[in-house]
Amino acid sequence: MSSGDDQRSQAFAKPTFSEAQACALVESVFGLKVSKIQPLPSYDDQNFHICVSRAKDTTDGPTEYVLKVSNTESSKAPDLIEVQSHILLFLHEAGFPTASVCRTKADNVASLVSVDRGSEVKSYLVRLLTYLPGRPVAEVPISPQLLYEIGRLAGKLDKTLEKFQHPKLSSLHRENFIWNLKNVPLLEKYLYAMGQNRNREIVEQVIQLFRNEVMTKLPHFRECINHGDFNDHNILIESSKSACGDAIYQVSGILDFDDMSYGYYVFEVAITIMYMMIESKNPVQGNPA
Fold first, then answer.
1. Contact at 8 Å (CB) between 78 and 112?
2. Exposure winner among 121, 126, 127, 141, fewest CB in 10 A?
3. Maximum alpha-carbon separation in the chain
4. Directed axis angle between helix 144-160 and helix 265-278, to 10°?
5. What is the spatial order of strands in the sheet that 235-241 belongs to?
6. Mind listing the pLDDT tens digit of every residue in the chain (289 residues)?
7. What is the C-alpha to C-alpha distance for residues 134 and 219, in angstroms, rounded to an integer?
8. Is the separation of the CB atoms in 104 and 111 below 8 Å?
9. How far apart, in Å, are the Cα atoms of 87 and each of 48, 160, 166, 276, 289?
């Protein structure tokens, strides 16, 4: 659910690799032989769930991965994708349920692949991430205990990233990035799509309130690196049985770090609450049932 430059054409930017081409990429870039491949949903990149064959002399290591092909616009920001990949590695080593990054045969976290599309040559950054098991939060019953765990995890993630260092960390200062809450006023350029109605008036009022009540207080908020998309499809859940036989759900994976940027702790809280409200039948009352 990520987007880069808000001016681009999604249809133009999204990759269109066939399954055969994806298999060839895995073998040529990462040196792995694909035994099974399946397309995965994606907003503006292209993802494949792949299974690989182990070498005869190995008995351990992952056999399931996600091949991620970034769209043409995102592929123009290799520094940003490099930082995102190293953050994944950092969080994985810190014990978070994030994917690990499989290095290329050249020992890089990503590879730029050029493809001749006839009228032009397009370039795509390709990465291979370990596959995370579980079901999206959107598919499981929400409980207060699960909401608490998700909120605690979001806060812990941002707090842990205070220790992250990388020479290209400044790439996370994404000033005109439409998905950073600091840029809510940029939404005004899209209001025309709503026509003239009551909903548009409400959105205009919210944007103005944001200017008056939030933008003026930004200097007082605590800054941090935000995941930025802690939504009900980017959090994976696995279930276990309690002593009473009831299902207990725990977070098994955090997906999609493509919307990462410098923001504020309160932004992560607001984004997480908003997405969890979507899963509640009575969001205003706070009842998840």
1. yes
2. 121
3. 66
4. 150
5. 135-136, 235-241, 247-254
6. 444 444 444 445 789 999 999 999 999 999 999 999 999 988 889 999 999 987 665 666 689 999 999 999 999 999 999 999 999 999 999 999 999 999 999 999 999 999 887 788 899 999 999 999 999 999 988 888 899 999 999 999 999 999 999 999 999 999 899 999 999 999 999 999 999 999 999 999 999 999 999 999 999 999 999 999 999 999 999 987 777 777 788 899 999 999 999 999 999 999 999 999 887 777 776 566 5
7. 39
8. yes
9. 21, 10, 9, 24, 35
Our answer to whether residue 44 is catalytic in this structure is no
Catalytic residue among 44, 45, 158, 229: 229
Q: What is the DSSP letter of 71?
A: -
- What is the rounded distance in angstroms from the CA atom of residue 7 to the CA atom of residue 195? 20
pTM: 0.87
* Tokens 């043409």 -> residue: 72
